[in-house]
Design a protein that fits this description.
about 120 residues; alpha+beta; Trna Endonuclease, Chain: A, domain 1; 5-stranded mixed β-sheet; 5 strands
Length: about 120
């Protein structure tokens, strides 16, 4: 049986591959700071938007996985994204957005662009 971190890593890799196939450039995965973690940091297919992606897995329903991206989690992602941008001055004027990817055990992937705003 996989531990929680290994399972999460496997689904984050699946989400990264899904996004690459849609034309996204995956810049970083599992970016961690004291403020929290961002699963994937990408550039949009047209390379104009930095996309911070939260990946969630639920064995029974990919849509239910997305419900786990609650307000507290959103705030943590936004704080961490802002610190990431602060550490990368070339991104200061760039557009950004927050997406969510839900995955279930059947391999169903749901990608929600603009899943939430900077709160």
């Amino acid at each position: 049986m996989e531990n929680k971190r290994a399972l999460g890593s496997r689904y984050e890799q699946q989400a990264a591959e899904y996004l690459r196939n849609k034309g996204y450039a995956v810049l970083e995965s599992n970016f961690r700071m004291r403020t929290g973690e961002i699963d994937l940091i990408c550039l949009s297919p047209d390379r104009s938007i930095y996309v911070f992606v939260e990946v969630k897995y639920r064995s029974d329903d990919a849509a239910a996985a997305l419900e786990a991206v609650n307000l507290k989690k959103q705030q943590q992602i936004v704080r961490t994204a802002l610190r990431y941008i602060h550490a990368h001055p070339q991104m200061a004027e760039a557009a950004m957005r927050f997406d969510a990817v839900g995955i279930d055990s059947k391999g169903c992937v749901i990608h929600v662009e603009n899943a939430f705003d900077a709160v």
